[in-house]
Amino acid sequence: MFAARADKQHTGRPVHGGERRQAKFGPLYKHLAAIEVDHQWMKTAPRQIVAFGGGGFSMESGNPLLDDYVLALTGAERPRVCFLPSASGDADHYIVRFYRAFAGHRCEASHISLFRREQGPEDLRRHLLSQDLIYVGGGSVVSLLGVWRAHGIDQILREAWEAGVILCGLSAGSLCWFAEAVSGFHGAPQRLEGLGLLPFSNCVHYEPGSKRRESYHAFLREGMRAGYAAEDGAALHFSGTELSRVIASRPEARGYRLDVAGQRVVEMRIATTYLGDRGKVPAAAVPEAVSTAVAA
What we know:
With 296 residues, the protein is an alpha/beta fold. It has a single domain, classed as Class I glutamine amidotransferase (GATase) domain (Rossmann fold). Helix content is 21%, strand content 30%. The protein has an 8-stranded mixed sheet, with helices on both faces. Strands 9-8-10-11-14-15-17 form a 7-stranded mixed sheet. Helix 2 links the parallel strand 4 and strand 5. The longest helix is centred in the middle third of the chain and has 11 residues.
């Protein structure tokens, strides 16, 4: 379940043979030699999703570790990044913060507003499929899924993922990729269906003693599918539909695998790589600790 390998069966976005480029890992990794990638033999890009439990530019001002990480995954000198602020109702302040964090010297940034269609690209499908990275913001996942389905964005995002465009996001921008999710945005945590790109359940802001954590355990006992949770500052990196690794922007942040055995919820804390440890290669997603909770 925790195998760290790329999806070998999928034929993703083509990469032109003979291209050579350097994968860079953001300003905190300047002391490392850039990794040169030879695409002469690499003809496809794997499907990748990076699901933040919480963090990134909108939650961690001055801490770019998670955002640097997803930019580096593209392998591009100046990647094309599109922000989807749908879960916030396309809030102006959120969009402004995105452009500040993803400035022109780092990437070619854009956004799509579904509430103000007079702005942005006319051909949504063409624009999204041309990106290196699609970044989904936080807010209401219920509203996000509703507006995406109304505009056909849900199908376009699946197509983009299958073509090798990297998908990422925090909070609602994490929950949306999974088959089932725990959302607490509208009050008491509720169980809902996501896009199903990843065949698991997901819980974000999975802090000790939180109502979300307690509700997730209850939902699992009631039949919710097994899945993954992440604390604020931790992110789950999937290659294909398998968890590849867990990375974090905070030393103490962790990711978890959850399942049910009889009447017990089995929670496995996953080995997590703190991105602030310079030069440390992200570890494979292996169990670090296991705990169980008996049904109340």
